[in-house]
Design a protein that fits this description.
eight-stranded parallel beta barrel, 8 strands, TIM Barrel, alpha/beta, homodimer, about 270 residues
Chain lengths: ~270, ~270
């Protein structure tokens, strides 16, 4: 199944929340820590609990890589454990010269079998092309990110009066000949999101920043009111998966996910 | 030993070439392929041969990650095999929101024990800070890269008349309060290098693009003539490590490394 079809069918089924597996051994419920592979157990428990309600899973490579090859093994086993019909985003923010990006694409798509990836556009088209050549995948390219540092370069004004991130959105639309591109737009940047919905057009949008980073769901959805719902993925990581440290943590995660998703649906209807 | 001291002592000893271990199973001598871990054997043979002549080693994470956890294990064992006094650069081009970058920094510096890293500045200061907090390490931040896509965004002109990559160089100088920053500047961009030597100031410069990417050593060194030599690292990967596919490959690699380094010294003297 094509990555874009997975996203569309999730949105069709009124699912909009992407569950971010930023799994940190320091933050998972302590009762799990006696197991031999606590982070994998945690991930499996979350996946089992939310697989019917999650629009997608986003796996943050950094959290696994920091434990070396044992972590990479857990990353791989986590991905294998996710049901085939759910979109899996490898949150890797890659981008390098062509022959190196080809290796990263091989890693994310062929080896780890992610459906989608996050990419850093800084080095330009040829740094992304090896990923874009995978027709059935989805490439979420950073446009304007949720962090404060976004003002350092992403929000620099160019000599034609537009901002760098707007130039990126324009380029991503040009590069989207295979209909396998999307953008990442910070849920903390609602004014800019609203202003740029026309430029974004029909590109799928991955929105991180809700929850711990204090993005506001109501604000985010207000930009989407007149738009088609089939291009929206709101990522929630820490504030969702670490909702409870108790034995009932899966229950709390599911309740929170259902609540967030219902809120999105309600906001679409108002 | 601090990363910067390793670079300085290499430059003091007239060593300027960084050996890029972009090790690709498809490209190593075929007689090695019968071994159980051919890429590790290849790396060890290269390291044994050039450790007296290399200014540094640059390990390209993509080439290891693409083989999953087995590859990550080889990455780790390769780093462990490099003598302690030689600078090891983790070529990872990382950059993400703060809590994720903290995990990447932990990975590159604490887990894999690299002395230095390459970083992508797109997301701004807070995306790099977790790396910059490691005082004894070196952070080579992308300014203007060697690929053609550099014109897409890095060479966009800002409304103050400077280019984005120049803004980055200015910022990196501001962020260099711990004297642990450097920049990456493509060896294929010699006019821009020459124009920006004053802006770069005393930042260490990692220059990829010599060899397969056709950067010209003479052109590169001409920018450095009046500058101090203690900030220069010229990376050569494919055109060096795959110099020969025969049983004598280590000999050929050493000859080429010695030749390149002598050429740099000669160019400094003319």
């Amino acid at each position: 199944m094509k990555a874009l079809e997975k996203l569309t069918s999730a949105n069709d089924a009124n699912k909009f929340i992407c569950v971010g597996l930023d799994t940190d051994i320091e933050k998972i419920p302590s009762f799990l820590k006696s197991s031999s592979r606590p982070t994998l157990d945690f991930n499996k428990a979350i996946i089992d609990t939310v697989e019917k309600n999650a629009a997608a899973f986003k796996i943050n490579f950094a959290f696994y890589e920091s434990a070396g090859y044992d972590g990479i093994k857990i990353l791989s086993e986590t991905i294998d454990y996710i049901p085939d019909d759910i979109l899996i985003i490898g949150d890797a923010k890659r981008g390098d010269i062509g022959n190196t990006s080809k290796m990263y694409a091989k890693s994310v798509f062929d080896h780890f079998k992610c459906d989608a990836v996050t990419l850093n556009p800084f080095m330009g088209y040829d740094s992304l092309e090896p990923f874009l050549l995978y027709e059935d995948k989805l490439n979420f390219i950073l446009a304007l990110t949720s962090n404060t540092g976004a003002s350092d370069f992403e929000k620099q004004k160019l000599d034609n009066g537009t901002y760098l991130y707007q130039k990126i959105i324009q380029k991503v639309n040009e590069w989207n000949t295979r209909k396998n591109c999307g953008i990442v737009f910070g849920a903390t940047k609602n004014d800019e999101l609203k202003e740029n919905m026309n430029n974004i057009g029909s590109l799928p949008i991955l929105l991180p920043g809700i929850g711990t980073q204090s993005g506001n769901l109501k604000e985010v959805i207000s930009s989407f009111k007149t738009m088609h719902r089939k291009q929206l993925l709101i990522n929630v990581s820490r504030s969702l998966i670490y909702k409870s440290g108790g034995k009932d943590f899966t229950l709390k995660v599911k309740e929170e996910l259902v609540r967030l998703n219902s809120e999105v649906i309600k906001l679409f209807e108002t």
